[in-house]
Write a structure and sequence with these properties.
Length: about 325
């Protein structure tokens, strides 16, 4: 073999290795142990390396399943069931408690006006003070040690509610959210609440609005690269990762995956979810974006296409 040929092989080998390294640095999706109970329109939160997944929609209607995924061991366990079967609910955590609020009961014509708290240390559910009204297909986030409910259908969708667990009290006099939307997603970052996408009158939105509880003021951020509803978002490595969704006109489900940087008010398009799903839930921890459940078909197809998928996008 000539010296020139050896040099060419070395050069191309170096380029191939560099390309592989760059691809690894950009992260990628991995399938983890599937969730025991397939479902869509579920809720999830994370506490101390464990993902808590509650309720959801199956062919028979709302369910009361409550399952916990241990990230370190890649295993699932079942926990005390949610007190009321429900779907299109929302969940977040504060300290050692998991809070679930609202949602539909088994049917789509009866919404719930309640707040339940699950104590991680005792494994028991407790009913807390009722929220100001009924909300379904809404979002719940924790910020500054309080729970905030934004968006959804039900009592005055523009209004924002907050709950103080220290005194078991709700407050509903916050500045109103400028854009009404349901099936949106929301994330808390540095004390502010980012409400992303959703739909209204079956029209998907790309709108991103930011609420600052300290100043009680809403502002507009850069819109998502594409409109979507029935999507999910979580904070991962200082950026908000968003994926999934559906379009009720085309009945398409989405696999688009985007990351929003609050510091630069900009979006980046990333590797898509392995399959389009809506009604998904997600959490983020230690540079990993975990996406859970959902359905691969939109609209009425939801009932026969629920999944138990658990996908992890690792940011290297």
């Amino acid at each position: 073999m000539s010296l020139r040929w050896l040099l060419l092989v070395s050069i191309f080998g170096f380029i191939a290795l560099s390309s592989t390294s760059q691809a690894q640095e950009k992260g990628g999706w991995e399938k983890l142990t599937p969730m025991p109970t397939p479902r869509s329109e579920l809720a999830a939160t994370i506490v101390g390396g464990r993902i808590y997944v509650a309720a959801g929609l199956v062919e028979e209607g709302g369910i009361d399943a409550f399952e916990i995924f241990d990230i370190a061991s890649n295993t699932w366990t079942s926990a005390t069931k949610v007190p009321q079967r429900r779907h299109h609910t929302a969940m977040t955590s504060i300290g050692q408690k998991v809070y679930i609020t609202g949602g539909y009961m088994s049917s789509f014509n009866q919404g719930l006006r309640d707040l339940r708290a699950y104590d991680i240390e005792t494994g028991a559910w407790r009913r807390m003070s009722n929220p100001p009204g009924i909300r379904v297909a809404h979002s719940a986030v924790s910020a500054n040690n309080k729970l905030y409910v934004v968006g959804g259908l039900g009592s005055d969708p523009h209004s924002v509610w907050s709950y103080d667990p220290k005194i078991d009290t709700w407050y509903d006099k916050h500045a109103r959210m400028p854009t009404a939307r349901e099936h949106a997603t929301a994330v808390s970052f540095e004390g502010k609440i980012y409400v992303i996408g959703g739909r209204w009158s079956q029209v998907n939105l790309s709108v991103v609005e930011v609420y600052d509880p300290v100043t009680n003021y809403w502002s507009r951020a850069a819109p998502m690269p594409a409109p979507s509803s029935g999507l999910t978002a979580s904070l991962v490595g200082g950026r908000i990762h968003v994926t999934g969704g559906e379009d009720l006109d085309s009945y398409d489900t989405y696999s688009g995956h985007y990351a929003y940087d609050p510091q630069t008010d900009s979006w980046e398009i990333l590797e898509p979810l392995p399959e389009g799903r809506h009604g998904v839930a997600s959490v983020g921890l230690d540079g990993v974006f975990y996406v859970i459940g959902g359905a691969t078909l939109a609209g009425q197809g939801t009932f026969t296409s629920v999944t138990n998928s658990l996908d992890a996008y690792k940011i290297n």
